[in-house]
Amino acid sequence: MTGFAEYEPGAARKTADVLVRPAVEADLTTCAELIVTRTGGSVDERRSRLQADLQNPDRYPAVAEIDGQVVGYGAVIRHQISPADPPTTAPDGYYLIGLIVSNEWRRHGIGDLLTQDRIRWTAERADEIYTFVNLSNGAILDLTRRFGFSEVTRDFTFPNAPLKPGTCVLLRAELNH
């Protein structure tokens, strides 16, 4: 099944001890399985892409773990515009991407913890961070507001992202050092 989880602001939350940490090789299959529940596609292909992310110093894959089980994933990538990109391409910089939490643990603050960790990592490297969000994803739009993101534009493209015109917003936040 793909799509966003139902969003009910203020709903009661379960409590648990959550460990947020950099992803390691042993996490990749679970991360790939989480990702394909939302995006579809092949677990093996996603796992291969995640493996490459572990080797890239401009990428930071992070996981949230409860009782030794990975229940959430999110990453940061560094995007650089290519001369072949169209003029509406999103600017160079670090981007939050791919936040997903297992169905059982959605809407319990795990996305906030993963976002806080990814912003911490980025703040060691840059003065700002970007993300783009589907306008129908109220949960992520609220999350980005809590972390100080503001709208840059709705007229943009991003390499290899299947964005439909008018459905997403590019957001930016300044990072304090």
UniProtKB/TrEMBL annotation:
Domain of life (superkingdom): Bacteria
Listed CDD domains: NAT_SF (cd04301)
This protein's record includes keyword Acyltransferase: yes
SUPFAM superfamilies xrefs: Acyl-CoA N-acyltransferases (Nat)
Signal peptide per UniProt: none
Keyword Cytoplasm found: no
Keywords, in A-Z order: Acyltransferase, Transferase
PANTHER family per record: AMINOALKYLPHOSPHONATE N-ACETYLTRANSFERASE-RELATED-RELATED
Protein name, UniProt field: Ribosomal protein S18 acetylase RimI-like enzyme
Lineage of the organism: Bacteria, Bacillati, Actinomycetota, Actinomycetes, Propionibacteriales
